[in-house]
Amino acid sequence: LQMMTAEVESAGVGPSFHTKPNGGVASSRNFGVGKAAGDYVTLLDADDEYFPTKVEKQLSAVLSEGADAAVCQVERRVGERVTPYPAEAASLLKGHNPAGVLNLKVWAHTNSLFLSRELIERAGLYDETLGIFEDDEYLIRLAHHGKFAAVPEALATWEDQPDSLSQVPDLKTLLWRDDNRRKQLKLTREKCEG
Q1: N or C: which end of the chain has fewer CB within 10 A?
Q2: DSSP for residue 109
Q3: Is the peptide bond before 169 cis (omega within 30 degrees of 0)?
Q4: 46 neighbors 4 (Cβ within 8 angstroms)
Q5: Residue 35 half-sphere exposure, CB side, CA atoms within 13 Å?
Q6: Residues with Cβ < 8 Å from 119, sequence gap 6 or more?
Q7: What is the three-class DSSP state of 92?
Q8: What is the pTM of this model?
Q9: Could you tell me the end-to-end alpha-carbon distance of the chain, in angstroms, rounded to an integer?
Q10: For 174-185, how does the pLDDT look when each residue is reduced to its tens digit (9 = 90+)?
């Protein structure tokens, strides 16, 4: 922690580190959002990274387009292979487009999110009852409540680990994922009913 603090301070940022008991990824993200003090919040998983201009470019896009949030492509890294995600910048969530997200026509990775505090207050926090697909459910809800700007370039990374929840090594895992997807879609219907 001391080494991280020194590295962050040398970049000109006053760090504030917090810990909590393990409660899952949604619980951790909600905890972090609760500790954030600014007008904007951006999320970063521990094994990923932001490029130096991410926040600057996304803030500029939000302000110039009068948006509530911004997204960008990320570099998806699987071992030595690096590909943009989504593959085409035209597939980034832009404007007010909940139908595009629901129909998988547009998307954004969690590491690409740059959210205004107002949008978070309208959409709420991550659903902590979901063990998987909590990020999908949250993006759909954000899309229902906000207007997005898209920065058409990779400004962050996503290390897609071989043992991550996005992998399907066997039938048992596939069935578990299917059950959780149905739960996520049910929650999406309930929360976005209006």
Answers
A1: C
A2: -
A3: no
A4: no
A5: 13
A6: 68, 69, 142, 145, 146
A7: strand
A8: 0.84
A9: 44
A10: 777 778 778 878
pLDDT digits (tens, 9 = 90+) for 78-135: 888 899 999 999 999 999 999 999 888 999 999 999 999 999 999 999 999 888 889 9
Among residues 79, 87, 68, 184, which one has the least CA distance to residue 132?
A: 184
Q: Where are the alpha helices (DSSP H) in 112-170?
A: 117-123, 134-145
Residue type (1 letter), 86: P
Tokens representing 106?
A: 């547009």
Nearest to 37 by CA among 21, 18, 50, 56: 18
What are the DSSP E strand ranges found in 60-190? 69-78, 81-85, 114-116, 148-159
Tokens of 40: 């904007």
